[in-house]
Every structure is written in C-alpha cells, then in structure tokens.
Structure of Putative hydroxymethylpyrimidine transport system ATP-binding protein:
Amino acid sequence: MSAVSINNLAITFDKQVLFKELNLSVPFGYWVALLGRSGVGKSTLLRAIAGLEKNGIQQGNINTQGKIAWLAQQDSLYPWLSILDNVQLKEYLTHRKTKETKQRAESLLNAVGMTAHLDKACYQLSGGQRQRVALARTLMQDADIILMDEPFSALDAVTKLQLQNLSRQLLADKTVLLITHDPQEAIRLADQIYILQTHLDTKDISFSQPAILSEPIHLQGNAPRDLHQATLWQLQQQLFNQLIGKDENAL
Ligand SMILES: Nc1ncnc2c1ncn2[C@@H]1O[C@H](COP(=O)(O)OP(=O)(O)OP(=O)(O)O)[C@@H](O)[C@H]1O
C-alpha cells in the first residue's frame, strides 16, 4: 500500500479540464517531486490530496495513509503571534500549550537555526527566516505525509540551498510530495520525479489539454544531491526539454 494513491482522477473548472484520468502512487518514505510549468494544475492537485479541493473533482479517488502537513511557498505565519506560538499553532488554537510543547518548539527552532531570533516578532524576520519557522511548525505536527507547494521558490539562491538541505535532513523519514517548477530542485531532493505536462492555450483555456503525468524518473544515491555529476546536468537538460515539450536532442 502507498502513502498516497490517486486513481482515475478528473478535475475540471468550468471549461478547463486540468486532469482527466490521473493516476499516481507515492510509496511510504519517498520524496516524490511533481515538476510542471505554471498553470498546469500542481497546486490544485496538492489541494485535492489534502482534501481541500471540493469543487473541481469530477471523478476518481484519492487515498492517503497517515497524518498530513502542508509546507507552502507563501508566508503562512501569523504576524500577531510570537515565533514560538507560530510553531505551536495547533496547540495555541486548541488551548493545549504546555511546558513540554514549548520545549519541543524551542528544540525544533534550534534545529532550523532560529534560536538567536526568538525574541523577534514575525514581521521582523526575513523571508528565509520565516520559512525556517514554517519548517519548524511542519516538524512540530509530526505528520506522516508532507505536501510541499514550492516552499523554496521565493528564497535567494544560498538560502534556498540551505533550506532544501535542512528540510531533506529533518524530514528524511517522511513521505514528501514536492511541487516545483525547478528541475534542479527536483533532482537535488527527490527519489522519484514525475513531470506534469500539458498544452496550455493561454487565449482560450477550453482548448488547453488535460495534464498528463510522465513515467517516474528514479534517482540514484542519497539526497540532497550536489549537481557535480555530468549525468545529473544531462538529466536537468532533459527535464527542461520535457517541460517545454521539445525533443530531448533538440536544444
Ligand atoms: N477554484 C478554481 N476555480 C477556477 N479555476 C481554478 C481554481 N483553482 C485553480 N484554477 C485554475 O486551474 C489552473 C491551474 O491552477 P494551479 O494553481 O493548480 O496551477 P499551478 O500549476 O500550481 O501553477 P503555478 O505554478 O503558477 O502556481 C489555473 O488556470 C487556475 O486558474
């Protein structure tokens, strides 16, 4: 049995058919990257897996095994709460904060390198620091499945690399579905990569084709990977070509 299995899924918004007969299976403990261009339906699919997409689903079923947490691109911190309360958000909202939950939050904030900033308000943090707090909050939830919607895409290159490495290290034993439009990120972090491809008609979405999922690409070795190997650079070029719909040898 898989941590996430999607069978025969169809999602349509008005005239726009995003998915027609989509099937996907995410094995337990794997990091799976879903790579696709803007507008192909990546976030919608993630919302559907989280049970948040009610309107567009026409057919099919989605099964998830275990508790789900979400790590988003957008700054999801509550600016009027302290950093510690943001990490203990669930406990804060359910009035279940204790000395133990505070200690755990502090230790997770230490793990993500935020100990020196605990006295700051959330609005005083940089984008990278906010994502570190969001990562600590995801860890605090101790979920089995982490849905990541481009969590690193707004960060500068060095912060992105640091947070990718940190997330891979701290969430090593979790099942992760990572949505990204960055082939390099997918190669650095994932055990398997799928490409979501479609022909998007920007003038009339009723002519857009439903997205199709590629065969999985299996990556060797431990993540996070450095891209110093020639084969990984070739793979990156291949993924770019697939994303823009070109023949592998055409660029
Ligand atoms: N609730 C909705 N009602 C109507 N259309 C929607 C709804 N949600 C998403 N869409 C449309 O579905 C398409 C896919 O959106 P989605 O956000 O899933 O794309 P994406 O691949 O995540 O793009 P990006 O990488 O730019 O975030 C878009 O054309 C969007 O306008």
